[in-house]
Amino acid sequence: MSENKRNLEVNVDLAKERLKCNFSIKEVTNIFDGGEEKTIERKKIEDIALNNGGWRDDIPEECMAPKEKYENAIRKSCIYSNIVKDKIITLDGIESLGLNSPALRRTADAFFKDMSPFLLHMGMFVPTIMGQCTPEQQMRWLPKALNLQIIGTYAQTELGHGTFIRGLETTATYDPETEEFVLHSPTLTSYKWWGGGLGKTVNHCIVVAQLYTKGECHGVHTFVVQIRDLETHMPLPGIKVGDIGPKMGFNTVDNGFLGFNEYRIPRDNMMMKNAQVLKDGTYVKVTRHGKLTYGTMVFVRVMLVSEVAFNLAKAVTIAVRYSAVRRQCERKPGDPEPQILDYITQQHKLFICIATAHALQLTSDWLWRSFSAVLAKMKTGNTDTLPEFHALSSCLKAISTSDSAAYIEQCRLACGGHGYMMSSNLPFLYSFVTATRTYEGDYTVLLLQTARKLSTCVASIRRRVDSGMSFEDAWEHSGVQLVQAAEAHCRAVICEIYYKEIVRLTASSSPNVKIVLNQLTSLYLMHWALERTGDLLRYSSVSEVDLVALQQKYEELLLLIRPNAVGLVDAFDLRDEILNSTLGSYDGQVYERLMAEALKSPLNEEPVNQSFHKYVKPLMHGKL
Amino acid sequence: MSENKRNLEVNVDLAKERLKCNFSIKEVTNIFDGGEEKTIERKKIEDIALNNGGWRDDIPEECMAPKEKYENAIRKSCIYSNIVKDKIITLDGIESLGLNSPALRRTADAFFKDMSPFLLHMGMFVPTIMGQCTPEQQMRWLPKALNLQIIGTYAQTELGHGTFIRGLETTATYDPETEEFVLHSPTLTSYKWWGGGLGKTVNHCIVVAQLYTKGECHGVHTFVVQIRDLETHMPLPGIKVGDIGPKMGFNTVDNGFLGFNEYRIPRDNMMMKNAQVLKDGTYVKVTRHGKLTYGTMVFVRVMLVSEVAFNLAKAVTIAVRYSAVRRQCERKPGDPEPQILDYITQQHKLFICIATAHALQLTSDWLWRSFSAVLAKMKTGNTDTLPEFHALSSCLKAISTSDSAAYIEQCRLACGGHGYMMSSNLPFLYSFVTATRTYEGDYTVLLLQTARKLSTCVASIRRRVDSGMSFEDAWEHSGVQLVQAAEAHCRAVICEIYYKEIVRLTASSSPNVKIVLNQLTSLYLMHWALERTGDLLRYSSVSEVDLVALQQKYEELLLLIRPNAVGLVDAFDLRDEILNSTLGSYDGQVYERLMAEALKSPLNEEPVNQSFHKYVKPLMHGKL
To answer: Are B562 and B95 in contact (CB under 8 A)?
Structure first.
């Protein structure tokens, strides 16, 4: 324990694992970064953001109350914003950093551990202004927003409605007398709920509301709304705003509620790119493509796929390194305790996670390129591929968030009791990623959307329609099978993209890189075949004999991948600040770090807690 | 929002659901309580414990820092201990309350929301003294322990060893000169880790250590060790003790670490029922049955099965009630938004949870009766059935904790975004129950133990042995399939017990109770058949045609159960204090409660948080 503070050497088992690795780790890192130059650029940005120490917390964040967590996150958000503004986006020779920049994601994750209350400012407020405002409106808000003179978020979901946007209850009624919209929350269920940073941080907000003009409702539209005074930060009259309280994760962010009491905003605070209300109250649709407003939603879904793949990479890095350090049990009496990574059951749990992190990252890169193509076409007015792309992004979002959450939890459970420690970072990664399964489109709802695009279940549905059911009822009664069919479709898409991308990306790789990356691809395909033996036997020509052979091949693959396991997670190239884990650090000094972190618990500041004198001692003496 | 404080009426949709219910809720409650008298007794105890208000927190516990949570839990533990001691165990006409008393579990859950730091005192310290001490030793410690004059816990797991008890490193070396044992922690990894209440609360501790005497190691034995001064509560010289820091759950409990520096205890602090060290250092085994020391472990596992079943009942009560209140989407344009409980995908997610809560509770009751029989036999020296029972309790513990955690999470996800709110209580229930998958025997390890008892995989293993592998290696390489086989075996056991117990318990029930409970049993059997279609096609005579019919039957069952869904969860008879959920309360006033709870967030105490003036405003003005 006296060693806590000194620079720790690498754990001997982990060092041996690295000697065993037979492929070039750097080469694999470059492949997933998108080339050697990208790796160099990323590392440069990581150095700038993380070498300054602004990300350090006085006490571990998980020892704080939610209010303190929030205040600490505001402090760090302001430091981080300045670093990005002054030192990163001004870097020479660096390509412009998009909102989906892996380098920024990595540094932000290391900085905040959890999330920044400013996240939706750059993540939703700015992109929505870019996407749904006229050029004049962009001139009005964008410079201030980019310069952080105004800080905003996005408020769509209400207490009573999330999935069904058409059911939102907040109203924006146009008053031609004053040329203003009157925002109103007619019911408790119409209160906005969830907006990140909405509770205490932002002064502006994009509000989605039912537009009424000339007595007619034109459905949901977006409005830019100032909700707090820029000098005093007090909520403006007619605004009821606050924090929604603690959540499973995201507790550094003040997700908020927002209600309007006949709150007035100028007419031109309506985002007018796709539809307008003229001074006299006439409603004019500018574009024919109502679907264009889904752009932000699709953008966020595409980002989420890479986000969850990245978090899965963190979890499996932690779990694999810990499994190389941890020794437990005896196989034969008297033998030394093996590394738990040597158990095939552990390999079965972890190697699929490495493969999935690869599969999802490559799928997300592919998705990103495809989406860029869709955006380019949209600019020329061609939105033909948008519906198809929307369906694809829906199911990929559903499957990737659900698989990542499940596999992160599998990594945590594979670390036994120590995985339950907050200092392992695994519980946080799960609580963070499981949220993505729900927001921006619930798992089941998205898969049902995908199913609408598919025809595989038609026979099932047809039987019900033929027996006299309406199509809607038949659809509803087939829901369980439709979700399963959509899931199977999406897995097939991921398998195909993963396989093709690995072939393409390793075309000129060194032989051992090619071998190990292909082993992981095979593992992924076999794993899902073995998870779905019932489907294979029912709907394919695969036989029972094939399955026995497949199981054997799968188990052989685990053994082949085993010596390269630590090398493979090292190739994710995640700095200790990003992993933020006692179990996963590069040096593998697991037990020293667990103890060092425990000693930071505020309960350890004093040998005897005050509650002993106040309650326990009187109880022991029968005097309470 | 002005209605937050007044007594809320029952939500109209929920009231309608209760009118739809066609069976006697009270009758079902009585069945699962074990008879009408048991229900009356339980409600009486709930009234005594919960009507006093001592369980109330000043601010919601999830708004506190871990240290405050701990101090608050100590306050409540002391109040609760007094209530139990003075008002509950003294009740006239009440059967003695065992440690597995459902009434005490319910009231404790309502009282603590999370856990009491005293939990392991009554849960492990006292039972281990009862089980492993001589009568003289029991006289020495039991009266004080039962009277809370000393408070203890159980310290077995170390930083470096959990599963493999033989690998524990803490030593207890007998010194015949002074007739003392010298406890020592030779390495960092030998520090005790996890003991509940160990960090700050307890003054005594049962320590599991390697016993050395006359230069020989006799394996792990248990010792009663005082670690803190009874008056000052200061750790005694030679003791290093503290809190291990925040965890995924159990944050009201000070799980602790403990290290010894040549710490001396009297010889007769060794628990001497099963083995003794004489004054001169001679080691004497008193019983031939080394397995007897596993008694406490089996006892805890049996308790855990009912514990997780109970928590699953809470989760599904919350999710079903919320699903009856929540309305979302349109099926046909213009139709009113349906209750989400009307979606077959939602029924598919939730009804299996009701069935599983029943199945596990009945299995646990059955297990409890069987275990009592084993204990009775053990008293006569007959331990023949202990190994078999140990194996069975292992796999039932593994499957029930794993299924319960997965289904609780399914309930949470079925509640969409609101399920992510801490105030729903669903995140807490998950973090609490998922821990049970790991402690007192890891899922995979326990199933591998079960597999050793099974012969179904013999052919698989034999192939490997025949090809020249050692048995140990063949066993290891077959790990993945062995776990699957053990899981299948255990599911078959649960299905059988569930089915038989329902037949037995509903023999004299009214017709509709019989029908609905049998529908759930059928649902459970069909659900698992459909989850394992691959196994059925490969290893049984079930055909593809059968599976199509089964799927259809399953979907029909969901529709049949639908009108009784709210009645079924009402029958768990869980008071609002026990559910502790904005989404699950009996009145279904979901949105009012969500808002009322949000307003309690300390961030809402002031309109502008201090961090605005300190950081955000300077940032906005470019002056940070």
So the answer is: no
Lowest mean pLDDT across A90-104, A312-326, B187-201: A90-104
Taking the CA of residue B308 and the nearest CA in chain A, the distance in Å comes to: 17
CB B212 within 8 A of CB B173: yes
Looking at this protein, which amino acid is placed at residue B533? T
For B32, the enclosing helix (H) or strand (E) is helix B25-33
Interface contact flag, B71 A600, Cβ < 8 Å: no
Please name the amino acid found at residue A370.
S
How many whole angstroms separate alpha carbon A154 and alpha carbon B339?
27
AA letter at A213: T
Among B75, B188, B243, the residue with its CB nearest the CB of A1 is B188
How does DSSP classify residue A167? Answer: G
pLDDT digits 0-9 by tens, B200-228: 999 999 999 999 999 999 999 999 999 99
Q: In Å, what is the CA distance from A422 to each residue of A4, A130, A601, B249, B339?
A: 19, 39, 12, 9, 37
Contact between A444 and A379 under an 8 Å Cβ cutoff? The reply is no
Beta strands in A90-151 (DSSP E): none
Q: Encode burial over A476-493: b for 16+ CB neighbours within 10 A, e otherwise.
A: bbbbbbbbbbbbbbbbeb
Q: Give contacts of B60 with chain A, Cβ < 8 Å.
A: 245-246
Token pair 């009157």 in the structure block, residue:
A182
Instruction: Give the model's pLDDT for residue B2.
Output: 37
Q: How far apart are CA A3 and CA A385, in angstroms?
A: 60
Contacts 24+ apart (CB under 8 A), A212-218: A212/A171, A212/A172, A212/A173, A212/A174, A213/A173, A213/A174, A213/A277, A213/A281, A213/A282, A213/A283, A214/A174, A214/A281, A214/A282, A214/A283, A216/A283, A218/A275, A218/A283
The CA distances from residue A257 to A244, A296, A489, B192, in Å, are 6, 21, 38, 45
Confidence grade of residue B458 (pLDDT, cut at 50, 70, 90): low
Give me the residue from B422, B594, B615 closest to A78, CB to CB. Answer: B615
Q: Which amino acid, residue A522?
A: S
What are the helix (H) ranges across B380-441? 386-414, 426-436
Q: How many helices (H) and strands (E) does chain A have?
A: 24, 11
pTM of the model: 0.96
Asked if B78 lies within 8 A of A345 by C-beta distance, the reply is: no
pLDDT digits (tens, 9 = 90+) for A253-308: 999 999 999 999 999 999 999 899 999 999 999 865 555 556 667 777 888 999 99
Smallest CA–CA distance, residue B46 to chain A, in Å, is 22
Give residue B232's Cα distance to chain centre: 34
Question: CB burial class (10 A; 0-12, 13-18, 19+) of residue B587?
Answer: middle
Q: Which amino acid, B360? A: L
| Burial of B422 from C-beta contacts in 10 A (0-12 / 13-18 / 19+) | buried
Residues of chain B with Cβ-Cβ distance to A244 below 8 Å are 421, 594, 598, 601
What sign for the dihedral angle of Cα B10, B13, B19, B22?
A: negative
* Chain A residues lying within 8 Å of B161, measured CB to CB: 328
pLDDT the model gives residue A6: 45
Per the CB < 8 Å rule, is A601 touching B230?
Answer: no
Pairing type for strands A283-285 and A275-277 reads antiparallel
pLDDT at B196 over 80: yes
Strands B256-260 and B239-243: antiparallel
Q: Does A8 score more than 50 pLDDT?
A: yes
Neighbours of B112 (CB within 10 A): 22
Among candidate residues B125, B273, B119, the one with its CA nearest the CA of residue B204? B125
Among A252, A69, A203, A196, CA closest to B608: A203
ipTM over 0.90: yes
